[in-house]
Design goal:
Blueprint lengths: L22 H23 L3 E2 L16 E2 H26 L7 H13 L2 E2 L20 H22 L8 H10 L3 H4 L41 H9 L10 H6 L5 E2 L5 H14 L6 H21 L5 H10 L1 H9 L11 H21 L5 H10 L2 H4 L11
Antiparallel strand pairs: 1-2, 3-4
Helix pairs in contact: 1-2, 1-3, 1-9, 2-3, 2-4, 3-4, 4-5, 9-12, 10-11, 10-13, 13-14
Amino acid sequence: MSNESTNELVVKSAPHITGAMSKKRLMQYTFIALLIITIITAIIWWPVPSPTDGQIESLALKNVWQLPLGSLVLINALIAIGVAVGMDALLHKVAFDSELNIWSAAVFGLIVTLSFSLGVPSMALASDVMPIDSLTAPNAFLYVAFISLIGLVLFKKMQSLGGRKFVNPAAAAKFLVLLPFIGSVLLVKSHFAPYDAATGTGLGVPVLAGPLGGGTAPVGNNGLGSFLTYLQSCYANPLSAGTTDINQLMILEKFHGWTGGACSLAVIVVGIALFVIARKYIKWRITVAYFVSIAVMSLVFAFVYADTDLMIRLLFEVFIGSSIFLGFFMATDPATTPLTGIGQIIFGVGLGLLTILIQTYMNFFGGSLLALIIMNLTVPLLDRVGIHKPFGR
């Protein structure tokens, strides 16, 4: 065959999209959707300094990195996108078989930004175990840059060399980077110093494997009146003196947790809009199955543990930042999820069940992240279930 021949077989990385919607256009739509969520979060969080004076009174960061929380969102986005796009371009130059995917890299950078936790809970003090430095500047910038670098190189590019991606790059990279700090970053039971009744400081352990409610009776050893009170103290505006309604916190504005989950309503509206625009190319069955299974399991556990308020557990499990954002924008990743419709439904149900079990019995309140990685590993088996259709048809 001569060098001038145009009949050579060219194989590109997944997803292989055919039809009116190209891979580039799908990535552009997804980038716009994620950018809208990023901007909304930045606007909501802008009035809050991070961290507040009371939370850093004994730390050297005071008056040095006390930036608006919203500015951290935008800086993190610029860093993550810059690292991802820069590394993608560099690898394309130095490695002949590395395809240039600028829009895909930019989308990955925003997902890293929106899946990183920022903000300090209003009840956290400088004496608590909560790793305040990792949730604020300048360490937040370093974590995001490192996760973006590891995810792009190790889990996007290197996985592709094997013909398929086995785990979601952003989820795997975040879990790998934070794994050495699992006791202070990921597991909620280690976030706060034990509750001291004499001084009224420290939170102790909020427990999901027990009755939840909105009454005044203490639940477990959380140091507060109820799990409802815990949620209000965790996600409320640190500058607010009053008590914020739980529905407003979980659905409209959370001031701590995943950046992408700060406003659940924004994620839902933007996510559905993207599904409608690219309805033939987005695996919406996973999202629907995921949230239905979470809702059903939440109600089952509410009856099992005799919750005094059925809505508290449901609000938490569905609208916690990691759950709402992951369900729309990470669980539907075309390269690490099943190809068949039945496989996608099983994937979504399994993801929901594992999320509830991990969060309830491991005290890992970001359990959807670990659940996603586990379910990604089952995809080769799930791809054998159902009828295969070309992606994009």
